[in-house]
Write a structure and sequence with these properties.
By secondary structure, the chain is α+β, with helices and mostly antiparallel strands. The chain contains 8 helices and 16 strands. It starts with a strand and ends in a 10-residue tail after the last helix.
Length: about 300
Amino acid sequence: MTAPRLVAPEQDGLRLDAFLQGIDCNELGALSQTKSRKLCALGAAAIDGVRAEGTTRLKAGQLVTFAAEHAALMLDLGLPVAFADDAVVVLQKPPGLAVHTGPLVKECVADSLARELPGSGLAQRLDREASGLLLVGRTSADLKALGAAMERGDIERHYLAITAGNLADDARTIDLPLRVTDEPDGSKPKTVVDPQGQRSVSHVTVVERRPIGTLVRVRLETGRTHQIRAHLAAIGHPLLGDPRYGDRNANDKALATYGTRRTLLHGERLVFRHPRTDELVDVTAVHEPDFARMFPSLGRKKRD
């Protein structure tokens, strides 16, 4: 990915979309005003590691992250792209966008892939309200290889989450078997702790604690449906904003104080072996604004 661009003193006060205008984007050439605005609307640019809108005014010394080499693909898909080559694409899904089609789903990631990258497929899932990285194989062979690696547990998946309450332990492994129910009611837990369920392991590390909740990083050892949501709820610290597994009072407070309107789960990092070269690929997402509002330290990037 292109290295972050430093905002120069003479660019202080410039809008983000204007800052991107003129950047060389390979086959697109110099980025036009119209395309720079479209890319910002897609969430393709970040300031100091936090996704930002095109109208945001920049300050000298800030760092702008923008994958210019993937601009054409982002415009085609209508989605931010964190990594791409002939075999693999890693998308950064915005919150609120469904991954697959279903009842009441007008648009989804799978539809964009089918339209623009026929033959490609998703190697993982993300809940509709979650944000973050999604791994895509561009051909059936690439997808099969990535899917097999996912089943073996060879792909590292790291998530950021904000939980209700104050987690006492700085690090904790949650090893509780989970069973996915057929419960159709969207307001009730779908995945429950059950001794007869499948082995499910989540490794949780505290990043920061604040009165509103705890910012944690979760590494999945297994990948069950709603695993992070069910596991954190089971230890008494559900995700903030989660209507199924969460605490209503805590959710109401987060909404009133920070405008939190979704389940605060973010796919932050993927580490995997390339399906063709076997080289290690390590992709990190930018942060979402709602996370940074609650934990401003996420937007304080070290500047060289």
